[in-house]
Amino acid sequence: GSPFVLCPNRACPAQVSMKIQHFVGRKMMDIDGLGEKLIDRFLELGFLTDVPSIYRLPSRRNELITLERLGEQSVDNLIRSIEASKERDLGRFLFALGIPEVGERSGRDIARDLRTLDAIRHADYDTLVALNNIGPRTAAEIQEWFAEEENIRVVDDLLALGVKPVESEGPESLDFAGQTYVFTGKLEKFSREAAEALVLRFGGKAAGSVSKNTTALVAGPGAGSKLKKAEELKVAVMTEEEFLAMLPEGSLVEPA
DNA sequence: TGGACACTAACCTGCACCGG
DNA sequence: CCGGTGCAGGTTAGTGTCCA
Hints:
Layout: H1 13-23, H2 36-45, H3 61-64, H4 72-84, H5 90-97, H6 104-114, H7 117-121, H8 125-129, H9 136-147, H10 149-160, E1 180-184, H11 192-201, E2 205-207, E3 216-219, H12 225-232, E4 236-238, H13 240-246
Parallel strand pairs: 1-2, 1-3, 3-4
Helix pairs in contact: 1-2, 5-6
The structure holds a DNA duplex (20 and 20 nucleotides).
């Protein structure tokens, strides 16, 4: 069972706030301009009531710009990032839902294997547990999550409000197949996210920590514990330039 | 069972913006 | 025009646990 003790009140504002904070997070739907403070204020004022209500904010622009410390500029920025978040890829969307055991990696793996939200929400336990890197625990959590009426409503509301998770694309090539990269330190040529996306694009994996399975650690200035660990484990260490040189010819890299 | 990883917490810096 | 606030984005460190 779940190790968490949750407030039994479904509408518990603290719980709703946490769910929304998770949903808009960087690695999830990535909605800029909606942080903890604003979420709590919006909840208090009734502009937010649940996760889907995020997507009703744009229609209330006129009311929002009259709020203290919110002007046209910030409200318009917020609305733009809400609109932009409607087409995040399916893996991020799954992560955003807050299903226990489903994080960045599992979300991506499930999305890649099952392709569509419809397939995922209707998948039975056996289908789920057969997937790569999905064990019995995770499979059960997913199935239970989609069996809850409240969760179904959230998903349906989101879709009705225009959220359209896009099917994740498969890798463009297999140049990095079977390889795992870890990025650390201050990256100057590209953002961490862009770097990890590159690895995936060419069929490799991006991990957060160095292990003996790591192909190479790409270290920028300021690298700390991971660099030390890589040296201990005798894992290859390279600079950003060296990493870029490994990319298949002619691949476009957007600067940081 | 243990290694690898998911996930969290906490911190820092720099920036955009509102409002005095 | 500048100060304060909140957020983005970057990072390390640490904990718990999934799954091969």
